[in-house]
User: Which sequence fits this backbone?
């Protein structure tokens, strides 16, 4: 991730530094000779090539003044959320294009077997998923929330262990201490959802530090209107495809 005010237009280049996660252990020679290894930061060039906007034209009377909530007040938060969801969707769309490692056949819901297999795929690749699970994230389509909860995958972290008087949390903030999100932006195709377990450096995105917010007045059908506009500039890229695993589930 690289969020900055330096990007001024489409075509700017961002440089994302990614460090190798595994080290090699070598023998020290009888003469004390050492085997050095190259573990420098890898420079990943990312083109900031996406400019997106949300624009709304609102009638001053009666749509805004007589509304229960004013559109002017709501617009910055709602437009900002829409832009964030678009960036999220673009990143998750990279999953089906670039990630080859997969668990699940897409014919049903995900269960513990698929989740554990995905975790072990990354563990066997020498990624620190068992040691530092907070560096990873599960991203699920919301349809997977009920089956995962019914499978007993509930959070006891804040309320005690089952059988010890603790009531389970209603949410799924983490599975196996790995942060978990449910989002409608998960990529889908041919009745299959492409959920994902990823390391934080599997993908990269570079964006303007703050979206640009503009307002103007206008006339629509001879009626006074207010024009609200927000746009942002960003780019996305797969960095290391081997640091993510697809979890296929059925699109119910």
Assistant:
């Amino acid at each position: 991730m690289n969020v900055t005010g330096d990007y001024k237009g489409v075509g700017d280049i961002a440089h994302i530094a990614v460090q190798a996660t595994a080290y090699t252990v070598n023998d020290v020679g009888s003469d004390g000779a050492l085997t050095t290894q190259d573990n420098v930061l890898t420079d990943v060039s990312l083109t900031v090539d996406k400019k997106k906007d949300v624009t709304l034209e609102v009638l001053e009377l009666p749509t805004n003044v007589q509304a229960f909530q004013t559109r002017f007040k709501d617009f910055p938060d709602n437009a900002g959320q829409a832009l964030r969801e678009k960036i999220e969707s673009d990143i998750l769309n990279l999953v089906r294009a670039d990630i080859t490692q997969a668990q699940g056949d897409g014919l049903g819901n995900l269960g513990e077997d698929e989740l554990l297999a995905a975790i072990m795929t990354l563990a066997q690749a020498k990624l620190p998923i068992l040691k530092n699970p907070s560096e990873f994230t599960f991203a699920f389509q919301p349809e997977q929330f009920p089956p995962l909860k019914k499978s007993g995958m509930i959070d006891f972290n804040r309320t005690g262990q089952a059988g010890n008087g603790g009531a389970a949390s209603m949410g799924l903030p983490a599975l196996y201490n790995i942060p978990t999100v449910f989002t409608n932006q998960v990529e889908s195709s041919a009745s299959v959802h492409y959920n994902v377990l990823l390391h934080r450096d599997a993908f990269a995105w570079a964006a303007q530090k703050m979206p640009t917010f503009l307002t103007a007045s206008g006339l629509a059908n001879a009626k006074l209107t207010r024009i609200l506009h927000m746009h942002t500039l960003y780019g996305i890229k797969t960095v290391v495809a081997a640091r993510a695993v697809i979890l296929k589930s059925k699109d119910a």
Observations:
- The chain has four helices and 14 strands.
- Helices lie at 60-64, 71-98, 112-124, 145-150.
- The mean pLDDT is 82.
- The two ends are 33 Å apart (CA to CA).
